[in-house]
Design goal:
The two termini are 48 Å apart. The chain contains 20 helices and 32 strands. The strands form seven sheets. Strands 18, 19, 20, 21, 24, 27, 28, 29, 30, 31 and 32 form an eleven-stranded antiparallel β-sheet that branches. With 702 residues, it is of the alpha+beta class. The chain has three domains: 287 residues, Rossmann fold, CATH 3.40.50; 153 residues, Isoleucyl-tRNA Synthetase, Domain 1; 158 residues, Beta Barrel (OB fold (Dihydrolipoamide Acetyltransferase, E2P)), CATH 2.40.50. It is globular, with a radius of gyration of 28 Å. Strand 25 and strand 26 form a beta hairpin. The structure holds 5'-O-[(L-methionyl)-sulphamoyl]adenosine.
């Protein structure tokens, strides 16, 4: 089968228009900005290779108080300031191999004219009105504060400068009148906001009355903005200007897909979770008032955290500079890390050691090894020319081919669902399957016996083709290194037609070999078994599901507890090479050999406790089988889950990391319904698939 382009049922090409937030031009780009942009770039490239026509928009947000102030400080005009500063983003994206189709700046005349056109339209329709507003105004913070927000000295709570009573006319957009329409839209589009727990958050927000939105600032206070077309003494509020960039790129700049189709509506707005309300409440109501269709989806990703729980920010001085990493370790290693280390939606902790470990294990070891082995063996035994299959395919070879075909199918299915880290994991399972195949077939031994040359040829052919396919599939993530690796195999990646088994034919002349990702030779610590937990306020039963850190783990060693007849001492792989010791009362239920290599679900942030002298770092989940015999059945995770994958209750956003006590866990009850594990109505899932347990319905899970 050869792949073609992706078409809709009406025969049109399938489209993918993705946007990043437009970044505040004043900020120095950091890893948080790089993440969204790399995510957009990789998703665009993945859609391209599965046959979509794509458009990728990014840019800078250039109006507002901060810009005006920074320019004044540098004694340049705001325009000069932004003309100089936006390059920091544009340059970084070039260095990171970002292939955006357009870079929009909100100071571009076309965008400004479009914003004014929209404001005029809303004014003419009566969707905007003016009103006097009175309140406590802080000159330091340049905004109004409620009486109850002020400190005891009548100062604002942020800059602690005195506030003054101010009466001011402003313009308001009738956002509140769209509340019901937005609720109806959300209810009929449950996948409009991804992940689902962010949908819940917005649905919850809309249970409170929705206020109208102040969309103006008097020019006397802020001059660096787009003037209101119906009142020259005012400029528009920065979000009203910024959000419209997503449509103005299409309408005012006439950007289209290659076949001429307009790019709006966007397929995905990628945003950080901190700007969810502006994108899922302000933005859709603005569009409804303007009679413009809504974007198809909003995807809110989590934050990169540092020190086990702090948000990265300039003021905290803990910012990771992407440039440093790329210069030292290469662009593709950095792209790979960003894309694979964060499960889209959840927060991820950035540590230097975690970076080194991931690059060394996935890229230097797994991918690098398999490529070098195949390359070297073909060079040494077939004069650098790939042999064709010469012996019948055995089970081991067929297994590699089956995995390769499964991976292609899954990538096709998961890319449109933007399950990026899962897509990458899936491709890496193919890479690892080739390494296993090589271990089993030991071609270096076959090479010593001339009678086995045909078998050697077959092993090398199958391996080379699987590595070729892996590199083609990884091209969206590591575009330069993937092509370099393919050149070593006498191949290259051109388009989606290369994404099938059987492109190499034999006879390909291998290119020069070099380590694609040299091992990073730095001493790194093993991951901390448990991040320093923050001790927050006590948990209520309603908080517990979000606070539980449950992860897939795999049992590596099983030993009897020296001092307790019912306990095993297990060594488990909790993901990213983290080994933990768990004492578990499974002896009545499982023989040691039944547990070896078994995947289990670990309760990872349970306070460690000593069980008869041995520290147990967490607990395992199991359903009750027979209360009298004290037997149980371990819960099962989906087949494709890997150590480290997080289990979440459907629709519940994980909360900040913290340590839980057994008595916290006892506030809730887990039980089995229809074979799946639930906490009341909340289903427990790993990567969107249910966690199951083979015990009778209604039985508890402990
Ligand atoms: N200008 C607005 C967006 C307007 S879009 C119409 C803005 N800009 S920003 O530069 O402050 O932030 C841009 C994005 O970077 C946001 O999505 C924000 O969540 C993201 N990040 C900033 N710090 C982050 C991390 N530490 N981790 C991940 N992303 C975070 O908001």
């Amino acid at each position: 089968m050869r792949l073609g382009l992706a078409f809709t049922k009406f025969g049109h090409m399938k489209n993918f228009y993705v946007t990043t937030p437009i970044y505040y031009v004043n900020d120095a780009p950091h890893i948080g900005h790089s993440y969204t942009t790399v995510l957009a770039d990789i998703l665009t490239r993945f859609h391209k290779i599965i046959g979509y026509q794509t458009f990728f928009l990014t840019g800078t947000d250039e109006h507002g108080q901060k810009v005006q102030r920074a320019a004044a400080k540098r004694e340049v005009s705001p325009q000069e300031h932004v003309d100089e500063y936006y390059h920091r983003f544009e340059d970084l994206w070039k260095k990171m191999d970002i292939e955006n189709d357009f870079f929009i700046r909100t100071t571009m005349p076309e965008h400004k004219a479009y914003v004014q056109e929209c404001l005029q339209k809303l004014w003419d329709k009566g969707e905007i009105y003016s009103k006097e507003y009175e309140g406590w105004y802080s000159v330091g913070e340049e905004r109004f504060f409620g009486e109850d927000e002020l400190d005891e000295n009548k100062c604002d709570p942020i800059s602690h400068r005195p506030v003054e009573w101010l009466k001011e006319k402003n313009y308001f957009f009738k956002m509140g009148s769209y509340q019901q329409k937005l609720i109806d839209y959300l209810e009929s589009h449950k996948d409009w906001i991804v992940p689902d727990y962010r949908w819940n958050e917005i649905r919850g927000f809309l249970r409170q009355p929705l206020n109208d939105l102040c969309i103006s600032r008097p020019k006397a206070r802020l001059s660096w903005g787009i003037p209101l077309p119906f009142d020259e003494d005012y400029v528009t509020y920065v979000w009203f200007d910024a959000l419209l960039n997503y449509v103005s790129a299409s309408t005012a700049f006439h950007k289209t897909y290659k076949d001429g189709t307009p790019i709006w509506p966007a397929t995905y707005h990628l945003i950080g979770k901190d700007i969810l309300t502006t994108h899922s409440v302000y933005w859709p109501t603005m569009l409804m008032a303007l009679d413009i269709p809504l974007p198809k989806h909003i995807l809110a990703h989590g934050w990169w955290l540092v020190n086990g729980g702090d948000k990265m920010s300039k003021s905290a001085g803990n910012v990771v500079n992407p440039m440093d990493y790329m210069e030292k370790y290469g662009v593709d290693a950095f792209r790979y890390f960003l894309a694979s280390a964060m499960v889209v939606g959840q927060d991820a902790n950035f540590t230097h050691d975690g970076f080194v470990r991931r690059i060394n294990s996935d890229l230097a070891n797994d991918l690098g090894n398999v490529l070098n082995r195949v390359h070297r063996l073909v060079l040494n035994n077939f004069e650098g020319k790939l042999p064709a299959i010469a012996a019948p395919l055995d089970d081991a070879a067929n297994e590699v081919i089956t995995i390769a075909k499964r991976v292609i199918t899954n990538v096709m299915e998961w890319v449109p669902q933007v399950k990026l880290s899962q897509v990458i994991d899936e491709i890496m399972t193919l890479v690892r399957s080739v390494n296993r195949y090589l271990e089993v077939k030991a071609p270096w031994k076959l090479a010593k016996d001339p009678a086995l040359k045909d078998e050697l040829a077959t092993v090398l052919f199958v391996s080379a083709e699987a590595v070729r396919l892996s590199l083609c599939l990884l091209w969206p993530v590591i575009p330069t290194k993937a092509q370099e690796g393919l050149a070593m195999l006498g191949s290259k990646f051109t388009d989606q037609n290369d994404l099938v088994w059987g492109i190499l034919k034999g006879g390909e002349v291998f290119g020069e070999g070099k380590p694609l990702f040299p091992r990073i030779d730095e001493e790194v610590k093993k991951p901390e078994p448990q991040q320093k937990p923050k001790q927050n306020k006590p948990l209520t039963a309603a908080d517990v599901p979000a606070a539980m850190d449950m992860r897939v783990a795999q049992i590596k060693e099983v030993a009897d507890h020296p001092d307790a007849t019912s306990l095993y001492v297990l060594k488990i792989d909790a993901g990213e090479g983290e080994l933990r010791t768990i004492c578990s009362g499974l002896k009545n239920s499982y023989k040691a050999e039944e547990l070896q290599d078994k995947k289990i679900l670990l309760f990872a942030n349970l306070k460690p406790s000593a069980l008869r002298g041995i520290m147990s770092q967490g607990m395992l989940f199991a359903g009750d089988l027979d209360a009298e015999a004290h037997t149980c059945k371990l819960v099962s995770v989906p087949d494709d889950a890997k150590p480290g994958d997080r289990a979440l209750f459907k629709g519940v956003a994980p909360s900040e990391p913290r340590e839980l006590k057994v008595k916290d866990f006892e506030k809730i009850a887990l039980s089995v319904k229809g074979g799946a594990v639930f906490c009341d109505a909340l289903a427990l899932e790993v990567n969107g698939k249910p966690v199951t347990c083979d015990v009778a319905d209604g039985n508890g899970v402990h």
